[in-house]
Predict the 3D structure of the following.
Amino acid sequence: MSSSSTAADSPPERTLPTVEERQERGREARKQAPRSSHGDWSPAADRPDPIETLMAQDAGRLQFLVPIRHQRMGVSAFTFYRGTAAIMANDLAGTPDSSIRAQLCGDAHLSNFGGFASPERTLIFDVNDFDETLPGPWEWDLKRLAASLVLAGRNVGLSRKDVRAVVAAGVDYYRSIMQRLAAMSNLDVWYRTITADEIRSHVTGNKKQRKKFDKGVKKAHRRNSLRAFSKLTETVDGRARIRSDPPLLVPMRDLATHFPGRSIEETVRASLERYRETISPELQTLLARYEFVDAALKVVGVGSVGTRCFAVLLIGRDEKDPLFLQVKEADKAALEAELPSSRFSKHGRRVVEGQRLMQSFSDIFLGWSSGKVDGQEYYWRQLKDMKASADVDSMDFTALEGYARICGAALARAHARSGDEVAIATYLGKSGTFTKSMTRFAEVYADQAEADYEAFREAIDSGRLSSETPEDSPVRS
């Protein structure tokens, strides 16, 4: 046999880095950003006024909804923090950088995790908000989660010692899960999910807490389009329509004067047609079996209040076959002021592609509108599909510590899908150095968030910001 023949029959050389090379990358990252350095943070001398940052965001929102956003942020330092992704992005820009990148949630506070249905109709737990998603330093997400745990713990009256234990539990479990993922095959990492049974194993409190969890799981299984149809609609003249429930839900028929130019129905229909172009052919076939019936403005969350978000009712073969979809405005990510812009020119696609990359399973109806509608970009998903969320405000120490672990696990799994889990795991190491550092950062940053909250309350009291819904507002209840 000739030498040329032997060479041609040889397998190609590997071009991907070896496990050892990836581990070395993690060790090198420690030199660039020592793990202990993450605990050192103080506000920059030229730190932007947080109130000005919020006001800049308010400028592009529906003005009759902005007071509701301020009301929700004004409840506590924790709810205020939920609306401050842009403020924290600026603060994180000057922090130590491991140089290891992953797809970020961008707003990974503990209320942006929850349960929803897998395609097999089982309840799984994951990150569930991606409006700010963008590639960046994986530690940014973990820092946002850690600070939120401090604020949540303080909000329910935990001692300083217990708050530290909650943060340490969440960060250390992130580290532990990342170590496990680093030892798995690529396919095993990709298919890894967090099920309701796994979550229950972290409910280590008393019998009452476990019973409450089991009740919540059963309730989530009942949340679907048919259940939403019975709660969110009414029948008038023999036809179904969305029920008016301001400020949470305001039908398009009550909003004509507040949306000059193209009506909400025209906006939604135009976005719907462009959304069809972004879903798979088999889903286009399924969606074609449903007819648009009604739409309503829906107020969601804290940070998103004021953006254009609609609940859309479609009917299939009859009224026992409804489909509720949510169409939500997609704008520039808060992190884009500090990180490179997304490779996707459409913000709706940025959100959708980020979600698909980070979640183990995503909603089958997840998609974006292929073009702008009246200058806005949108993405689509199901409104009700076994959605479940934790009641953080009612958690005691044991419950919050368990929830911190499961959020840390979900975030580690999400980062491992797009980042280098071997390099991250090596960087984190097996000691408690990083956990201690992150706990220290979380306390210091929570102090800053509380100071920003006080400034926010003063801005409302002085009239600089409004929290009063006008008498003529369509969302006034």
